[in-house]
């Protein structure tokens, strides 16, 4: 009989067509769904469907910031600004949709942001009214446990209350009075460097020898810490002082009698009798 419908295709033709379609597309590495237009992640190189194409959608473990790559817009040629672990595809889509206006990386703006970030991270000097912006790390005072800039790092420079308390409790002994009289005799022989700026009752005379050659009698303030004395001695003898740089060895005052290295944060008058008036010290690196 004659039917109205056309003839059905052979079964072999249907199976052959299905096999051809099976070869098209790939399975999503996340949900295993077959997609005829799969997306390949440029970071982990795996294939995903449209729902899992972005890094955050398929839990990509590759840190894009480690590749040190900044995406470039194919239309305007400008670089796109990315945050940490941010998907570049989404940012690029937003940039192109906005007419190449949003998320543009600008060198000047990046420098300004870095400068502002560094300014926020660097705390100010603890001394009220200090406006130093040297860019160095702050130094912690071992007496009052506050942090100061390089200019005010010594206890006497930031008027440390702990140092003033130690000075008030101090009473000179008879032996020190005798050493003071010896200091007056030393002054009569030679005029020590720095003595004209220090009151007579606070002068402390020490013979300083530099390991690089040279030396002489230097007058310190008895209330100065050893760290301050090192700075003054280096300036007076023309010695390169790089105690602020952690990559260089520290310059110390070392006893010539026994090789003892005097600590930076101790006032000089509290070291008596280990360091007395007229003693000779070596200006140079201490023993490791």
TrEMBL record:
One of its GO terms (cellular component) is cytoplasm. Residues 169-179 have a biased composition (Basic and acidic residues). Residues 22-68, 119-168 form the AN1-type domain. Gene3D superfamilies: AN1-like Zinc finger. Residues 169-193 are annotated as: Disordered. GO terms for molecular function: zinc ion binding. It holds the Pfam family zf-C2H2_ZFAND2. Keywords: Metal-binding, Repeat, Zinc, Zinc-finger. Coiled coil: none annotated. This is AN1-type domain-containing protein. It comes from Lotharella oceanica.
């Amino acid at each position: 009989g004659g039917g109205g419908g056309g003839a059905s295709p052979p079964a072999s033709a249907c199976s052959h067509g299905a096999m051809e379609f099976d070869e098209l597309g790939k399975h999503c590495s996340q949900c295993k769904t077959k997609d005829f237009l799969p997306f390949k992640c440029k970071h982990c190189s795996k294939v995903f469907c449209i729902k899992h194409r972005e890094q955050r959608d398929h839990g990509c473990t590759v840190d894009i910031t480690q590749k040190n790559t900044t995406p470039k817009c194919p239309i305007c040629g400008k670089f796109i600004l990315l945050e940490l672990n941010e998907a570049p595809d989404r940012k690029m889509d937003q940039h192109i949709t906005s007419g190449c206006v949003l998320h543009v990386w600008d060198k000047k703006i990046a420098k300004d942001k870095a400068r502002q970030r560094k300014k926020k991270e660097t705390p100010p000097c603890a001394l009220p009214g200090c406006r130093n912006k040297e860019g160095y790390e702050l130094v912690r005072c071992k007496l009052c446990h506050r942090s100061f800039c390089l200019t005010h790092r010594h206890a006497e420079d930031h008027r440390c209350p702990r140092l003033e308390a130690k000075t008030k409790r101090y009473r000179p002994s008879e032996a020190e009075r005798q050493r003071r009289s010896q200091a007056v005799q030393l002054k009569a022989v030679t005029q020590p460097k720095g003595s004209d700026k220090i009151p007579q009752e606070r002068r402390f005379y020490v013979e300083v020898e530099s390991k690089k050659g040279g030396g002489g009698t230097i007058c310190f303030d008895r209330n100065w810490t050893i760290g301050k004395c090192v700075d003054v001695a280096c300036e007076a003898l023309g010695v390169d002082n790089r105690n602020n740089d952690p990559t260089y060895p520290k310059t110390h005052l070392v006893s010539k009698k026994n090789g003892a290295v005097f600590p930076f944060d101790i006032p000089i008058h509290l070291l008596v009798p280990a360091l007395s008036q007229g003693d000779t010290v070596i200006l140079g690196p201490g023993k490791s």
